[in-house]
UniProtKB/TrEMBL annotation:
Catalytic residues (UniProt): 191 (acyl-thioester intermediate)
Protein name, as recorded: Octanoyltransferase
Record-listed substrate binding positions: 88-95, 160-162, 173-175
Site (Lowers pKa of active site Cys): 157
Length: 231
């Protein structure tokens, strides 16, 4: 039987606000798992799939390098962008309007307890979504995320991943460039990779996409791959 997962679209929302709400859900779920274990109860843990967009923001993962942000505080203000050091894995990335940011807050005990499989499954959902638009995508050996032309010198990244997992509860997630302003990536060394390009669905197809249409395709692929029932 498919596991029920609550789907939420926060729309365009401030990064700090989204991070705080994620942390609240995450901590409650981790605490519930701890209570189940210590009190020998079997209260079902909730699962969420959150989609949103953010105003211009750069985030640096806990294993990242601050020098990969190529802007100072004045530059950030001029570009109306913010900057946060956060508790996910990975290096620096950019979020902004026209990008689908996905935050699955899942208890992987309800699905499978394999973080590498979790990452590969999220990637596969994006790969299938791109295939719906006639774009062949895949993986770049040694890196997370979804890439186009990963096997040659034209390799370019269209989706970045960075997650946190504790007691098999996940937070943070992925950023899929749909109608994203790619100029903002020129202000960082994306994910610490300085010799590869970044792209978007708009750039590849030569037209803007309906965000709701792309979200619908993506969330359905995630639901099918994880055997979820979105509610």
């Amino acid at each position: 039987m498919n596991k029920k997962v609550k789907y939420i679209d926060w729309g365009l929302t401030d990064y700090q606000n989204a991070w705080t709400k994620q942390e609240e859900i995450f901590e409650k779920t981790v605490a519930l798992k701890g209570k189940n274990r210590t009190e020998n109860t079997e209260i079902e843990t909730p699962n969420y799939l959150v989609f949103c967009e953010h105003p211009h923001v750069y985030t640096l993962g806990k294993s990242g390098h601050p020098e990969n942000l190529l802007l100072d505080e004045d530059d950030l203000k001029n570009k109306q962008a913010t900057y946060y050091k956060i508790n996910r894995g990975g290096d620096i990335t950019y979020h902004g309007p026209g990008q689908i940011v996905g935050y699955p807050i899942l208890d992987l005990d309800n699905f499978f307890t394999d973080i590498h499989l979790y990452l590969r499954t999220l990637e596969e959902a994006v790969i299938l979504t791109l295939a719906d638009y006639g774009i062949t995508a895949g993986r770049y050996p040694g890196y997370t995320g979804v890439w186009l032309d990963a096997d040659n010198e034209k390799a370019r990244k269209i989706c970045a991943l960075g997650v946190r997992c504790s007691r098999w509860v996940t937070m943070h997630g992925f950023a899929f460039n749909v109608n994203t302003d790619l100029a903002y990536f020129k202000n960082i060394v994306p994910c610490g990779i300085d010799d590869k390009d970044v792209t978007s669905l708009e750039r590849e197809l030569g037209r803007k996409l309906e965000m709701e249409e792309v979200k619908e395709k993506l969330k359905n692929h995630i639901a099918n791959l994880f055997k979820m029932e979105l509610i």
